Amino acid sequence: MASRLHNLFFLFALGAPAMAEEGKVFASFSVVEDGVDQAPRFVYSEAAASETDPIVISVEGRPLTVQDLKYRVDLQKNWLSANVPERYTFVGRNLVLCSPEPERKAGRCDRYEFTEADTVHAYYFRVDSWPQ
């Protein structure tokens, strides 16, 4: 991915994320915007980042708000920059159907696709958890 967002957020070590491997479950960790007083701490769930087990982003101590929406894509890119090997080539991002949350008939996720040679690597982030 050409533009990495390592300096946008300061990573708090709740378990450093491992490099991406297919079928791997990624450790939960949190981030806070660097240099902002009382910035919310965003938490990435422990998940496989797959269609059936997408990453869920939440805020520690409170529900996500409409004001948090401005961070959604940057938070996703931050997770990707920490977990996707730099040798992968970014292909695109799409809104797709994925496994539903409990009590829902359908689920929506942002799907980021990367390639390495002839292999496609996809990473999923739950979108339904964000306010509309």
In terms of per-residue confidence, which ranges show pLDDT below 50 for 5 or more consecutive residues?
Answer: 1-20
Number of strands: 7
Helix content: under 10%
Structural class: mainly beta
SSE series:
EEEEHEEE
**What does the average pLDDT come to?**
84
Description:
This protein is mostly beta strands and 132 residues long. The protein has one domain (9-126). Helices cover 9% and strands 33% of the residues. The strands form 2 sheets. A 4-stranded antiparallel sheet has the order 1-2-3-4, with helices on one face. Strands 5-6-7 form a 3-stranded antiparallel sheet, with no helix packed on it. The protein starts with 8 loop residues before the first strand and ends in a 6-residue tail after the last strand.
Task: Supply database-style keywords.
9% helix, 132 residues, disordered N terminus, mainly beta, 1 helix, 3-stranded antiparallel sheet, 7 strands
